[in-house]
Amino acid sequence: MGRSKLWVFLAALVLASGVLAGPSATAAGRYQPFTKGSYWRSQSDNRAARNSKAMMSWLRSMLHTDRRFVTIRATNLNGSSAQGTTVYYATENSPLYRICHNPRYHKYYWPTDFDAVRIPKGARAPTDNDADMIVYNVFKRKVFWFTNMQRINGRWCASQASVYHTDSNGLHGKLARSTNRHNWGKHGLAPITQAIRWGEVASGSIPHVMNVYIPAISCNRDDVFPLYTGTMCTTHAANSIPAGAILRIRPRVNLSNYRLSPTARIIARALKRYGAVVGDRSGVGNNVTIKLEDTAVEGKGNLWANAGLRFDSLRNIPLSAYRIDRLGAGR
After folding, report:
1. Residue 113 has what DSSP assignment?
2. Cβ of 53: how many Cβ atoms within 10 Å?
3. Residue 24: how many CA atoms within 13 Å on its side-chain side?
4. Can you give the residue ranges of every domain in the chain?
5. pLDDT tens profile 315-327
6. What is the pLDDT of residue 83?
7. What is residue 165's three-state secondary structure?
8. Are 118 and 89 in contact, with CB atoms under 8 Å apart?
9. Whole-angstrom Cα distance, residue 15 to residue 66?
10. What is the C-alpha separation between 103 and 263, in angstroms, rounded?
11. Residues 123, 86: contact at Cβ < 8 Å?
12. Residues in CB range of 39: below 8 A, 6 or more apart
């Protein structure tokens, strides 16, 4: 199915469901932060890691036999209650908030950027263990990512927060290659990776690196580039995968050999071209998981399910079709 036909197909599904397409299903959804040459927006041409086969073997061993594929996470996909990430695009007229520390969690330091964040009226955070929310303040050239985001007594509060400047290359400010030292938070995991946005898939492509959760993070080495440092590790197993590693469908894999829905095929192409950075442990079963923008929680309806996407839509591509790119490589 061509890109234009896919867009018509998805748009028709939205209209058929009676849901008006919100900002994330229009031009705002296709908007990409960071400079075009950014690591996050560049396709990978890296070779496989020296011990890629051993690392992939370890990963398979960590998964239940019926879950040895990349799963997709959002509200009510395949009947699952697992949720994704809500994404909002504020304007200069949106309500202004000073983000407070969520008292249910340990307080972390964060810079003064979070003293003035515009968040649209009616914004909602998922109710799962992560409660992740991304908020674009493009007029301030900033994108925020909040974890355990919750409305408390009229205030927005989070346990952890990140801020990255949209006109930079999107790397953490402590990294030598960063073009903005004020980029900060989440171990260098840029917000752009955290959720596949509805508008991206509706437009036919996901032009950036994604984030993937795996069952355990290696303690055998610290985070590798493009991450900064500090991801919590959980295993010393031989050939375990460190945070910052890139999981990618092998370049010689022919995706046309796999039966995939149109939406799943777009995600698979991105997994082959850009790959997904290992950013954290999966919290829902022993899964390898990628999050979606949670249109159901946003109040736009279950656009992903309406478009035929399921929790297991990538099941037909086994983990044997993937590899780990050379650790710490640039692009």
Report:
1. G
2. 14
3. 28
4. 3-324
5. 999 999 999 999 9
6. 85
7. strand
8. no
9. 35
10. 39
11. yes
12. 169, 170, 171, 177, 209, 226, 330, 331
